[in-house]
Amino acid sequence: MSLTVNNPLSQEEKSPWAQFFQDNELRKMIMQDIRRTYPGELMFEQKEIRDIMLNILFIYAREQPDISYKQGMHELLAPIVYVFYNEYVLVQDVTHPSSQLIRTVVSMEYLEHDLYWCYVALMKHTYSYYTTDKINKPEPVNRDQTLLFKEATPHPSSYIVQSLEELQNGTLRRFDPELQQHLQKLAIQPQLYGLRWMRLLFGREFPLKEMLALWDALLASPDFAGMVEYICIAMLLYIRDALLCNDHTGCLTLLMRYPETHDVQLFIQRALFLRNPSHYECPPNLQYRPNAKTRLANGPDRHHVAPVRSGSVGKQEPVRQYRTESATFSAPKSPVSVISETIKRKMSAPKAHTSVSVSSLTRPAEVSSGMPELAECRRVQEYCSNRLDSLLDDLQNTICDLCEEQTVHEDKLMVSLAGLKQVRDVLKGNVSLGCYFRIAGCR
């Protein structure tokens, strides 16, 4: 036995102590995430459950060194633990003689073993969401398009990034081109919200028990990845009206802090219908209404969004009415229609005769006295806007490098970055201060 290798202070890669220290660091990282798992559920605070989760995630990381452990994997394991543990406890309490075989098969002694293999089976479906294998990414159709993360030249991207780009720029465009163009205009990349949706299988967007029903639909589908994609489309269509009425910051807030809902059947039915409209009934059109007493506003008829065929002339869609407990109101108007109505109203208004005061033209001393202060304000404004530009570029490059990794404060980072961009636009004069206050006041 060589002491140069088998030594805790050895720097050799083949040293067993090097692997020992790596394993300890991996266990610490996994346990740090496990402690944050569903803080409202007392079951996940038990040491026994935490140790089981730690062993499963650690062994899987060692068995799959190409992806090892990624932040968020513990949130895929937690629902499986929740279901198995409660079922096993329930079966152990049954005292009927015929239940002896069931108690033997569903035994707490083999809980950890059963959980591991079920987790492995689930990860076979989500493996590509965590892999860092690179694939060729096609060039964007519009090279002059302004993106949140500017790319000088196309570069290889992972499978999930390309899938999300196809989801927003391809699938969503077929079903709702207006919403797709709105997100594209605001330079909202699908990775900002879709990475968490797909990697965690919507674990942070729905309550635990509702999410289990959603998982049943995903696992029952012969095309797991396709069903995940259409669930994402259904979620986007549910908040489409709210997205169309918001700016960059408001849309990011909605997408990264998805509105609470307790009826996942809405998204399952819509996803099944969009995927195969000839085999499934069209579900009722339900829209998220942030200012209404009830968050579900049911349309008077069953309205569905059909794929838009290229080359076809789209018909003007009638204004949909939404019913609430107290009133019936129209869907919010698009920004284009609001601007056109404002222009028509101003042009049709009678012109008022303006009079010029002589006294206002004979005060050159007062006007000239304020010029230095005005020039100084403009210099400060120009400096602040240019400085913000430089800082935002640095932030964008840093976040772009980390966008494929799940971070705890990812949503806060992106919302804060969007807020800084909004302040920059105000300083540059691209957005009026009054418009900024109105947008902030609406939220």
Task: Summarize the structure in words.
The chain is globular. Strand 5 and strand 6 (328-330) form a beta hairpin. Helix 2 crosses helix 5, helix 6 crosses helix 8 (191-199) and helix 9 (208-220) packs across helix 10 (224-238). 58% of the residues lie in helices and 4% in strands. It is mainly α. The chain has a two-stranded antiparallel ribbon. A two-stranded antiparallel ribbon has the order 3-4. A two-stranded antiparallel ribbon has the order 5-6. It has 19 helices and six strands.
Count the beta strands.
Answer: 6
Net shape: globular
Helix content: 55-70%
Give the helix tally.
19
Distance between the termini: 68 Å
Q: How can the largest sheet be summarized?
A: 2 strands, antiparallel
* Strand order within the widest beta sheet: 1-2
Radius of gyration from CA coordinates: 28 Å
Strand content: under 5%
Overall pLDDT level: 75
Contiguous runs where pLDDT drops below 50 for at least 5 residues: 135-156, 292-339, 351-367, 439-443
**Secondary-structure element series:** HHHHHEEHHHHHHHHEEEEHHHHHH
| Structural class by secondary-structure content | mainly alpha
